[in-house]
Design a protein that fits this description.
Strand order of the largest sheet: 14-11-12-13-26-25-24-18-22
Helix content: 10-25%
Strand content: 35-45%
Largest sheet: 9 strands, antiparallel
CATH superfamily of the largest domain: DNA Polymerase III, subunit A, domain 2
Distance between the termini: 72 Å
Number of strands: 26
CATH topology of the largest domain: DNA Polymerase III, Chain A, domain 2
Number of helices: 6
CATH architecture of the largest domain: Roll
Structural class: alpha+beta
Shape: elongated
Length: 366
């Protein structure tokens, strides 16, 4: 194999593919990537068997087509530190040579026949949508997915298509994010699917232009996303997602609207005095204002107030400020709306059109 390509394009492609390559694996072949030169293009493939990516670089001078399997991390590190405009990749016996100008690296290769076979994207039953719309749904929800060991189904984002709307839901049991957007749903899957958070984030990584169209495809146990340059596949999580509709309040007797940026600033201010052992901020809400209060042993206490439009009786509720701030970072409205019933019931934040965020309250001794 011998090919010459643009260094920056190669560097960016290697960076994307390295996101799925494990640093250490019981299967050494997975610590490598497969480069295939063909048809004036270079394909770079990597996988951890749960998620796989195929990234294609166009306008490549291919003198000798063929594949080569090289260590993923070393290849990226070397190409990233090169200074030339182009990079030449060539193979000889058991080695791969990467050169640019006077700089050369010789890498030991592995047998391409041992590299896992990665799916290719079909043209049937795909769901077209704007890349920016997909990325916005992921940004609005994936942060709420579980990270610690526990219920495996919570380690992904639930995707549902109903009445022409693509809905994404993520929860870790203490907070829940739900966002949806209209799509062309003629080829919608018959049942909901749980997509690993890692795959969702990788999908977003390869959407270079939010105006570009992407193709989404759901199979029996796999989901795929195709962009101009990349095809990504992820194995769906096999499990039962929590019945999220049961925790979303249908009606609320307390409704408060407040300036989003002011609430963010005041929450951060008061949260500074709270410790790990008591990560809670109390909201005391009455007509025209909200008073925030936080305290912890050994640090002290802090108070702040802000104007608010409140409908309801004087009320109080406490939240982990980190959870609330995580949601407010994605709020696209100048005014955020909080709805709740009692201090022990979930708080529902309306953060935008077709976007709600549920946070479970914290019980604080008076």
């Amino acid at each position: 194999m011998k090919a010459i390509c643009n260094r920056e394009k190669l560097r960016d492609a290697l960076a994307v593919v390295n996101n799925v390559v494990p640093a250490k694996s019981t299967k050494p072949i997975l610590e490598n990537i497969c480069l295939v030169a063909m048809d004036n293009a270079l394909e770079i493939v990597g996988t951890d068997l749960e998620c796989a990516v195929r990234y294609r670089i166009e306008d490549v001078q291919v003198d000798e087509p063929g594949p080569v399997v090289v260590p993923a991390r070393v290849t990226l590190d070397f190409v990233r530190d090169l200074s030339g405009e182009t990079v030449t990749l060539s193979t000889s016996e058991q080695n791969c040579f990467i050169s640019s100008g006077e700089d050369t690296c010789e890498l030991v290769t592995m047998d391409p026949e041992e590299f896992p076979v990665i799916s290719r994207f079909g043209s049937e039953d795909t769901i077209p949508m704007q890349g920016g719309t997909f990325r916005r749904l992921v940004d609005r929800t994936a942060f709420a997915a579980a990270r610690e060991a526990g219920r495996y189904a919570m380690h992904g984002v639930l995707t549902e298509i109903d009445n022409g709307m693509l809905k994404m839901v993520a929860t870790d049991g203490r907070r829940l994010a739900l966002a949806e957007a209209p799509i062309d749903a003629r080829h919608a899957p018959a049942k909901p699917a749980i997509v690993p958070t890692k795959c969702m984030n990788l999908f977003c990584r390869v959407i270079a232009d939010p105006l570009d169209q992407v193709q989404l495809h759901f199979a029996e146990n796999q989901v795929g996303l195709k962009t101009k340059n990349a095809e990504i596949f992820g194995r769906l999580i096999d499990g039962e997602f929590p019945r999220y509709q049961a925790v979303i309040p249908k009606e609320s007797k307390n409704l408060v609207e407040v300036d989003t940026q002011t609430l963010i600033q005041k929450l951060r201010l008061v949260a500074n005095v709270t410790g790990v052992e008591a990560r809670a901020v109390r909201l005391r809400i009455k007509k025209g204002e909200i008073e925030l209060f936080g305290q912890s042993v050994g640090r002290g206490e802090a108070r702040a107030r802000l104007d608010a439009d409140f409908k309801g009786d004087t009320a109080e509720i406490a939240f982990n400020p980190d959870y609330v701030l995580d949601g407010l970072k994605n709020c696209e409205e100048l005014q955020v709306r909080l709805e709740f019933n009692e201090k022990t019931s979930p708080g529902k934040f309306r953060l935008g059109e077709n976007y709600i965020y549920i946070v479970m309250p914290i019980t604080i001794d008076a």
